[in-house]
Amino acid sequence: MSVTAAKGFTAAGVAAGIKENGNPDLALVVNEGPRRAAAGVFTSNRVKAAPVLWSEQVLKGGVLSAVVLNSGGANACTGPRGFQDTHATAEKVAEVLGRDAAEVAVASTGLIGVLLPMDKLLPGVDKAAAALSEHGGEKAAIAIKTTDTVHKTAVAQGDGWTVGGMAKGAGMLAPGLATMLVVLTTDADVDADTLDRALRAATKVTFDRVDSDGCMSTNDTVLLLASGASQVTPGYAEFAEAVRAVCDDLGQQLIRDAEGAGKDIRIEVVNAAGEDDAVEVGRSIARNNLLKCAIHGEDPNWGRVLSAIGTTSAAFEPDELNVAINGVWVCKNGSVGEDRDLVDMRYREVHIVADLAAGDATATIWTNDLTADYVHENSAYSS
Amino acid sequence: MSVTAAKGFTAAGVAAGIKENGNPDLALVVNEGPRRAAAGVFTSNRVKAAPVLWSEQVLKGGVLSAVVLNSGGANACTGPRGFQDTHATAEKVAEVLGRDAAEVAVASTGLIGVLLPMDKLLPGVDKAAAALSEHGGEKAAIAIKTTDTVHKTAVAQGDGWTVGGMAKGAGMLAPGLATMLVVLTTDADVDADTLDRALRAATKVTFDRVDSDGCMSTNDTVLLLASGASQVTPGYAEFAEAVRAVCDDLGQQLIRDAEGAGKDIRIEVVNAAGEDDAVEVGRSIARNNLLKCAIHGEDPNWGRVLSAIGTTSAAFEPDELNVAINGVWVCKNGSVGEDRDLVDMRYREVHIVADLAAGDATATIWTNDLTADYVHENSAYSS
């Protein structure tokens, strides 16, 4: 499973001592070939962590031999010293594997503004290299957890080829991308340009539409590595769909494990004039703290949906808006619709439909409710 | 005090039975003249409540004889029937006072999507008219409270003239304008154009920069009425400053009474390339839930400030950003600065300075921390 579901990959997850509690904190994923094509998508936050700056450069070559990931520290806002630490980490991995540092991506997650303990991280790379295995995917997924309560993996099978992956992320989840580290692998025999095209298409409709708390990270990284080990080159559409399916699966797991969340909220914007309008409206609803509190209280407070729609620049007329919550059209033509007492909100998933009555475009954004547990987790813990 | 601090105004606040708990819920403010000039600023939410749509039209004439305000229901998203109810309310006030309905502004606050109980509201207008008094300002301020724990009034004195006002607002506080109802009165002898100019200048740097929870209301209304009763026409600068001072005072009271808040956060953006950049950055920081949770936990988590700045389009270089929390420069040149343990966060006010090192413009945005009490209040109570 995980990043070793596809042939041609080994992985490991070890405790290097970066985390003070002794939990696993260092993961290594190695593409054993024969092909070593890769693509990556990174945070659109302009304050980028050192490993993001490094990996963006590395990915320009379209080749990755390995990815080293650590939890226990984001290595963001750490200045030139932080960038040197990322570089030294890539050099260390290259040395241990006998590859080139320019083919090693680095990803970090944890507290911003703290330097990584390199005296622990570098020996950890030796330890991880020694533990590399074709069955190491689960351990790698475990080692990148921060406040995640479970590790996240997913797999899609093609005809003779596989796409698998792992993800971490629980807070600071917002688009562009959602805050997280994701490594996807495939044994399909595809080139870097195809990987890039499939990955961007997939993230745009999956991770980019997961918005747990509106906070965009400095460290978001999604990588897709191809080993070619299956010796099969699938058609683009088939391959892209498999990548999308794995991204969608992992994105759903991120939402279900979001910090403190009690409800998963699916916001479906329909009849928008264009997809951009649909996404803008969906995000605005997803980021409305008052609505998120109401959902937590199982209160179908549709007025908060309308007030969120009203802050956007999307095409609509206020008196043509319709809103359904869990199948009940509580707002019709911008006014009172069906009886709100008919809405059953006992279950974890809440489905909001916002009908803009302005066209035929649609988009779905996922978010969570806002809870006291979210406040506690993010006020008591420096993350 | 309040709206009756200036000469030429009477006011009243009564319990009309709109609120089920029997608390005061209807306020009436009457301009007794001789002048009846007025200006207004309203929510920029495109989903506007019926009273906002009505009052915007009324204000185009630049004349107001009275303002009628109710709590216990926002009359937003209530369709044509809701608009008719607003119209009927204005007609009733006009009839009772012997004035024209086109000179009566209406403002409502409370739950969105519920029709007002007109059988209680209209008799309430009679009751309020009978209670009108030159000392009625406090009672009017009390009658417009929703989740406010205290009523809010402010006064500024000029040389022979006065500006006074009242405000309500505790949740759904965000710019454009902050969610609230505000009525300001003055006995200065100024025309409607001057009122409009002074009011827009004042709200832009006060209410518009109060962002408690990022949620923009459907009902925001700020009105300024001039009676001319002092027979003094102050210079524009002096008058505008008095209006600004009253708006600033009321805005601060809104922040201090924000739902569930334990900390008032003053975000001062300095050395921005322009004022728009400063405001954009300030708002982005003010809306970062993770930072707001950290402040609640008295954790000077400056990484969350940088990640919020990074999502903006403002001019800055990531490695030139500086951040101070309560006087300690915890971030210098985009990296680790002074020891975060030096930051004393025991007090209610928290002062964050974000230095963009990109120019000489500045702006200050006020927000609150995010607390479990905010979640409780907004999940248990349909507001």
What key attributes describe this structure?
homodimer; 383 residues; alpha+beta; L-amino peptidase D-ALA esterase/amidase; Ubiquitin-like (UB roll); 2 domains; six-stranded mixed sheet; 15 strands; globular
Can you give a write-up of this model?
Two copies of one chain form a homodimer. The first copy, chain A, has two domains: 2-256, L-amino peptidase D-ALA esterase/amidase; 264-380, ArgJ beta chain, C-terminal domain (Ubiquitin-like (UB roll)), CATH 3.10.20.340. Chain A has ten helices and 15 strands. Chain A has helices spanning 50-59, 79-97, 118-130, 137-143, 192-205, 236-256, 275-286, 289-296, 302-309, 372-380; strands at 9-14, 26-31, 37-42, 66-70, 104-108, 152-157, 162-168, 181-186, 221-226, 264-272, 322-325, 328-332, 335-336, 349-355, 361-368. In chain A, the strands form three sheets. Chain A has a six-stranded mixed beta sheet with strand order 13-12-11-14-10-15. A five-stranded mixed beta sheet of chain A has the order 3-9-8-7-6, with helices on both faces. In chain A, strands 1-2-4-5 form a four-stranded mixed beta sheet. In chain A, α1 (50-59) packs across α2 (79-97) and α5 packs across α6. Chain A is globular, with a radius of gyration of 21 Å. The interface between A and B is large, with 68 and 68 residues.
